[in-house]
Amino acid sequence: MVQPEELSSGPKSWQKTLYTVIFKADTPAGKAFDIGLLLAIVLSILVVMLSSVESIQAVHGALLRHLGWGFTVLFTIEYGLRLLCLQRRRPYVTSFFGVVDFLSVFPTYLSLLVGGGGLFVVVRSLRILRVFRILKMGGYEKAGTTIWNSLKASRQKIIVFLLGVMSLMVMIGTLMYLIEGPEAGFTSIPVGIYWAIVTMTTVGYGDIAPLTIPGQALASMVMILGYSIIAVPTGIVTVDMAKSAAVKAEPRHCKSCEAIGHDPDAVYCKSCGARL
Asked: CA 56, CA 246: separation in Å to the nearest integer?
């Protein structure tokens, strides 16, 4: 987040107003600006999506191109205004939203030199993340932190689990290749591994299927195994989340005076001063 001190030295009144409108979502003008910006982002993404439909492109191609360039010019002006009211522009330019804001306009200009580059403007969808700032959803940050910490705590278990599943996929794919062979479409071991992954994840494209009884028996085992394996990483993360919640819920008490309600990071008792 760009801080107020990053305004240009001795900013004029219009620069202060511009900064407040663009970077301050907690003001009526700033919220209105961000909501209008989000609406423009959604519409620009819709234009890109519609332009990829041949039937719509054939009829309304010119209109979609004009709208696309109109949104690009609008976002270019918006990006320029963001730079205009800042003194230290590098923190914003190199920030996540700064990079996304730049990429939301650059590919369209690139398309003038490289055909099809304009399709990369779908990166504008990342700008919708600003809704968290606009709608004051920062309160969900703690919940997100809890999930992230649980994932980090269980990463070793998950890595071991994934390595085990990958090894199992290789063995099953190789076995299916030996059982079925090229006649059933299993032309190589990688194709067999692909089939094993698709089958175990219950996706089931159906482009390759075993024809022999041993192959069908193996496929049945893989399907049943898939249901149990999918639940494993969920259980691992859930257990770590439960442990984290239990630690936070457990009241810390002082052994000296039995006082409770201490902060999780407290070292000394807030009542008697004894070490916890």
From this structure: 55
- Cα–chain center distance at 201: 22
**Distance from the Cα of residue 165 to its chain's centroid:** 24
Query: C-alpha 109: how far from its chain's center?
Result: 26
Tokens for 272, please give them: 């008697």
The architecture (CATH level 2) of 4-135 comes to Up-down Bundle (1.20)
pLDDT tens, residue order, the chain (276 aa): 444 444 444 556 777 888 888 887 778 888 888 888 888 888 888 887 888 888 998 999 899 889 988 988 998 999 999 988 887 888 888 888 888 888 878 877 777 776 655 555 566 677 776 666 666 555 555 666 777 777 787 888 888 888 989 999 999 999 999 999 999 999 999 999 999 999 998 888 889 999 999 999 999 999 998 888 877 777 777 777 777 665 555 556 677 776 766 666 677 777 777 777
pTM for the complete prediction? 0.56
- Domain range list for the chain: 4-135, 146-249
d(C-alpha 94, C-alpha 97), whole Å = 8
Find out whether 156 and 150 touch, Cβ atoms under 8 Å.
Answer: no
- For residue 253, list its beta bridge partners: 260
Please check whether residue 45 is in contact with residue 119, taking contact to mean a CB–CB distance below 8 angstroms: no
Residue 269, both tokens: 């008792």
The C-alpha atoms of residue 41 and residue 90 are separated, in whole angstroms, by 24
User: Hey, what CATH class is 146-249 in?
Assistant: mainly alpha
